[in-house]
Design a protein that fits this description.
about 375 residues; Rossmann fold; 11 helices; 7 strands; about 40% helix; binds thiamine diphosphate; binds magnesium ion
């Protein structure tokens, strides 16, 4: 296990060997949870998986310096490693996958992968890509006005950085020097569309210059470089210097989602060459070489990951589905009548002056 004398790896960044082991453990747990989701999906137990495999190094490292429960995280659908680093538990992740009633993200109402826990400062994932970039900017604006010292961090893919929302958010954040961090996880594809057809520039980070903020590139297999990028951006935001755009170059090790087949648009050669871009073995080798991770510690981490996966799967699966009587909770300010033939449906409150149930006789 880690000791003071084994290595100085990470010490220039203020990271201890225990920090590095924790980061590796978070990556390993997330990978194990993700792999289990695919099995559950193929077994017909959960409807949909959208995977963060290949993104874990960047996600854990960039989020590692945040203050849990104080700062704000505004995730996207691949953010499981970021969320676990920020304190969401694998049980809570699995509850969303199984859409159980006690799921803290939405009580089993949202599409799977739409994680969020309001009282832990984790905003719900948004289905329309890039809308979250504006939400994070608004949260950062509020934090600045209220002088709370909070930092908001948000995540998106490189394809989503072509949406107008991204540019409007960065412009506003740059003008007002907001405490917000924009993390673009560039995996080279927006579903089947390659980077060359998404953007005329190779690096999304250069867009930061257009909005008056640093654009920093980090390699997603270099966990310590990603940590440095995150730490610097957090310090910048916290000290009032303003926003940062981080672009983490990552690889998408799986298809876009469980409903996609990437061999239709990626060659076998390309997929093979990407295998060397898996952050887990890269970080593990780095820790081994530095003498921080020995075989016994690695075996312990593997065992811990296995236990966490078994526990979170079994526990979440055993929880009950949401009560159907609560299906309309939080959908309307006033609960509408349960039956469509209830005369209340025809009232002014629900019909206005011509709703879908307007009396065809014209009376
Ligand atoms: C506004 C909007 N347009 C299209 C979609 C459908 N969609 C979901 S994910 C996705 C690809 C996004 O690619 P990228 O931003 O690179 O993220 P990645 O999935 O690669 O992590 C698209 C087009 C959507 N959810 N919202
Ligand atoms: Mg992408």
């Amino acid at each position: 296990m880690a000791t003071e004398t084994t290595s100085a790896l990470g010490s220039d960044l203020g990271l201890t060997p225990d920090d590095l082991i924790e980061m590796y453990t978070l990556m390993a747990i997330t990978r194990a949870v993700d792999e289990r989701m695919w099995i559950l999906n193929r077994a017909g137990k959960i409807p949909f998986v959208i995977s963060g495999q290949g993104h874990e190094g960047a996600q854990v490292a960039i989020a590692y310096g945040l203050r849990k429960g104080h700062d704000w995280m505004v995730p996207y659908y691949r953010s499981v490693a970021s969320l676990i680093t920020f304190g969401m538990s694998p049980r809570e992740i699995m509850l969303a996958q199984f859409a159980r009633g006690v799921d803290p993200s939405s009580g089993g109402r949202q599409m799977p992968g739409h994680y969020g826990i309001a009282d832990r400062n984790i905003l719900s994932v948004s289905s329309p890509v890039a809308t979250q970039v504006l939400h994070a900017t608004g949260i950062a604006y509020a934090a600045k006005l209220r002088k709370t010292g909070q930092v908001a961090i948000t995540y998106l893919g490189e394809g989503s950085s072509n949406q107008g929302d991204f540019h409007e958010a960065l412009n506003f954040a740059g003008i007002h020097k907001l405490p917000v961090i924009f993390v673009v996880e560039n995996n080279g594809y927006a579903i089947s569309v390659p980077m060359s057809l998404q953007s005329a520039v190779e690096d999304i980070a250069v867009r930061g210059a257009g909005y008056g903020m640093p654009g920093v590139i980090c390699d997603g297999v270099d966990v310590l470089a990603c940590y440095r990028a995150g730490r610097d951006a957090i310090e910048r935001a916290r000290s009032g210097e303003g926003p940062t755009l981080i672009e983490a170059k990552v690889t998408r090790m799986t298809a876009h989602s469980s409903d996609d087949q990437q061999t239709k648009y990626r060659s076998a050669d390309e997929l093979e060459s990407e295998k060397g871009r898996d952050p887990l073995p890269r970080f593990r080798d780095q820790l081994r070489e530095a003498g921080i991770l020995d075989e016994a510690a690695e075996a312990r981490i593997l065992e811990e990951s296995r236990k966490v996966v078994e526990d979170s799967t079994d526990w979440a699966e055993a929880q009950v589905d949401p009560d159907p009587a609560t299906a309309q909770l939080h959908v309307y300010a006033d609960a509408p009548p349960a039956r469509m033939d209830d005369p209340l449906w025809r009232s002014e409150r629900f019909m206005g002056d011509g709703g879908p149930l307007r009396d065809e006789s014209g009376s």
